[in-house]
Protein 1
Amino acid sequence: MSLERFINQQTSAWMSGTGPDSDVVLSTRIRLARNLENVLFSTILSLEKAKDVVTQVHEAVSDQLALELLKMEDLSPLQKRVLVEKHLISPFLSETSLYGAALISDKEDVSVMVNEEDHLRIQCLASGLQLKETLDKANQIDDVIEEKVQYAFDEKIGYLTACPTNVGTGLRASVMIHLPGLVLTRQMNRIIPAINQLGLVVRGIYGEGSEALGNIFQISNQLTLGKSEEDIINDLDSVVHELMAREQSARDALKQTSPIQLEDRIFRSFGTLSNSRVIETSEAFQCLSDVRLGIDLGYITHISKSILNELMVLTQPGFLQQYAGGPLRAEDRDIRRAALIRERLELDETN
Amino acid sequence: MICQECHERPAVLHFTKTVNGKMTEVYLCEHCANEKGEHLFSGHPAFSLNNLLGGLFNPDPQFSANPSFHEQEVHCENCHMTFKQFLQSSKFGCAHCYETFESKLTPLLKRLHGGNTIHHGKIPARMGGQLHLQKELQQLREKLQEMVTSEQFEQAANIRDQIRALEKKLLNEGGVQ
């Protein structure tokens, strides 16, 4: 059954770590918010009408796009959690929406959420830095749906959304970026306010309010009105390129000024991951970040680059419990996490 | 000190808000503070950017100082949402709300979107060629202004010709309809 495939399939295509600039940029995400004309927004919609919206959207895509419909009501809390951890659905869709559903592609690079805060949240994910390509893909899906439904659109202020922070283009473009060099050289505290001034937001990997676990930051546009989609992604793209350049020079500087300390840190972390029997999320992320940096800098050669992307999803509480086949207490999760990481490392070492 | 919102209960929450460099003193009772979404100080777990939206707007002198405003509160004819309800949730009930609350919304949009109030992005295909052409025309006019300001007259002349061609096209298409 396909639901089981989405849940059990460990890694999605966007986690492969093979995209452009993937030594620094982990993944790219594009989200378009859309609402149907003449239907109340999902936040105050009746159950009956919410079901209608799901049917209407499902019919609109089913001819042209191979997307699998998953209804939130059919999923267990644990299954929903796994989908959240894979970034295929939002926490809001999983917990708060009245009659939420998601249309997900085989490769897990497309997820159309229905009855989230807006009727439609078209989301596309890609590995590495691929803003233009991912936006094109989201636009294609948008066009397919628009052939069958009428969107709420205003000539002056564009696509109308439940929250005015999304009105206009309804576009949120995000890039997940690994910046250990800038964190180690303590530059992030100066850089984040500068990025904010450009109308972009910097957050931890699990969205608003989350801390930057494993030196991974999510950078996205704040403004959705007044600029074209292309301008929005171009602005984001140039900031990301600037960050990549600075990260590179921070890495070079570290390697030049304190090579032995850097190497020590990387191999200590590798040692922790290869040997620990109990490990918490934050420590695991920090060590994974160090090991990934070690791979990028050529200190570690026998481990594949995708390890950070993969393990940061696989060692989340939902996934661990999915593997264990049931709920786990926090300390048991830490034991499972340590075991999973050791297994994954051994797998690469034997290959 | 009495709550400045309900003028009944004693104010228990006092804080200074600075919006765009303008400082405002706020005195609220617990009830009104919760209602106005100012409970960010109580460590509400679901605190997010959205909760701040209401704060961006309050206290609106027209909104809080004029008692008759509450009595004949404007509400959306389509979904019955009032502006006060919108401020609490930061979410509109339907697309029609944007029209209903347009006058109040414009300053909010400016604050949220760096002073912008006009959409310059994608247009649904069904909106027809007219709107697409108008958008293009508007963008060209802005570009023309830019060129003139930066004294790049050769390019400006080029854009002017494009504008003329587009205007003609728009006029012809308009005539057909």
Protein 2
Amino acid sequence: MTNSVSNERWLRVRSALWKRPWARATLLLSPPLAWFLLVYIASLLVLLITAFWQVNPFTSNIERIWSLGNLQTIFTTPAYLSIIGKTVGMAAAVTVTDAVVAVPFAYFMARIAAPRTRTALFVAILLPLWASYLAKVYSWLLIFTNNGFLDWTLGLVGIGKSNLIYTNAAVFIVFCYLWLPYMIIPVYSAFERVPASLIEASQDLGGRTWRTTRRVLLPLALPGIVAGSIFTFSLTLGDYITPLLVGGTSANFMGNVIYTNIGIANNVPFAAAMALVPIVIMGIYLLGARALGAFEAI
Amino acid sequence: MIEVPTPGQPAAAGSQSSQQAPAVYVAGLRKSYGDVTALNSVELAVAAGEFFTLLGPSGSGKTTLLRLIAGFERPDAGTIELTGADVTGTPPHARDVNTVFQDYALFPHMTVAENIEYGLRVKRVPKQERNQQVAQALEMVRLPGLGGRKPSQLSGGQRQRVALARAIVNRPQVLLLDEPLGALDLKLRQEMQLELLRVQREVGITFIYVTHDQEEALTMSDRIAVMSNGGIEQIGTPVEVYEHPRTPFVAGFIGVSNLIERDGDQITVRPEKITLLTGHDQAPPGTHVEGGQVTDVIYVGVLTRYVVALDAGGELVVSRQNADDSGATVTKGNQVRVAWRAAQAFTIPR
């Protein structure tokens, strides 16, 4: 008797859930959603709040008084503005370079390469992603360093020294190398999704290679390029280790400012305020990317 | 009846001058993919203004032949000529042919009007003229005013029409259509068949039409090339290929396969040409009569098909109109006689 009553109760719960899909979704999503809110949103909120606090210059204690002082310092100090400009410029340069390299490469992979070649290229692209970030940057350090691999090779052909180590050029090259796979993969999948008949249709209607590329292929691959650029742009914007290792003392990017303010300067509120800058830049970037349909391509 | 044009002796089709070379002429055309031979030494001549159909099952090489004419594939051997000019080595963008693709291949990021004017822009037609021609093309396919839509906002039938408009707006010498109605449901397909015929007559462009649907081929074509295993089995008018199939394959693929062997010859009789006799029915005078047993009865609305196992060996399908119910009902297992006039039976050449 009691058994059938409890069965009936269960049935009622089930049909109540069946009738309300949103209730089922809530039940399914609430644990990960709670985690997401706690870890990501809450820490972002803490960051946001901290950015409006101050550090007492004498005691180095954090004073919980609301103030726009940190942001004001950032936007009125020419050095900080130039660092922001330099970081965004670097991110843009890395993004454009990676896109220029990735588009023909991804096109070759998606449309020309035989299946076996394609697999080999995939492994070549993905393999570095499984290696440690630090190991990769250090190996570039070995390449660029004085009398390193690059200088040795140049010496063999009689060119002399590169003097690349501890320059922005070195930082740029390492960034381009590090983030290239993140550009190639979405561009590849965008190319792969373009039906072969569309390219044939363009040729059939009289379009030569250039027109077919410009009018049909690139517009259809654009969401993939924008999706890839989200990675290359944001990863460059926030990175401080590569500039630290191969850029040396001359390399000052937003990430380095945040890093020194947390560590040496012990000014966490200022670091938080500085961290808001790339977040806001990425927010604007993502809005633009959404308008270009990048989120369907990820 | 339309003459079968042969090279050196071009056909006189419609009002075209008899001196004109065929719109499309291919000879010795061969194409294989790895070990698979898709096309084996095909020769074909299509007259200007003709509605020519390549009919065959999948894998028969019809689409390969079409793609070779369009230039999307390179032949292993053989030549392709368009109105007398050799285009075998010409890339697709330089050939005066256009294709209506099976999946329509409309550019999804362009509007309907931008799709249609694509070929005109390549030819650098001035904008005003372009707009006018696009409007005309939309009118022709009965989609006036839809130029601003994106292909994703159109139904399957509308997309089909846009694909057609995008091709014919260029006024090519030859229009290639690769199973263009394959994705449409039956009713829409029948409607579009008539539309295609109307458009073809209006513009007078040579159509080469690929289909596996024998009914579609019979309804629409001036001539049909029946293909199988990479070769052409028979070329002829719909009446010729239906009434006088030259090979067992053609007899089987077009219509119901009604092949029996008598005195060492393969004979085919179309189901509707056979009279079904029951009880003491008199056989019509001058007919050949055989006895048999009904093994299956299939009701298909306008007619009923009876499968009859003949006493002399073999099996024939007999169809009878369901015009009235005066005829005695025949059911499975009944003993019957079948009769046909000798002229209706066709011996397939060995």
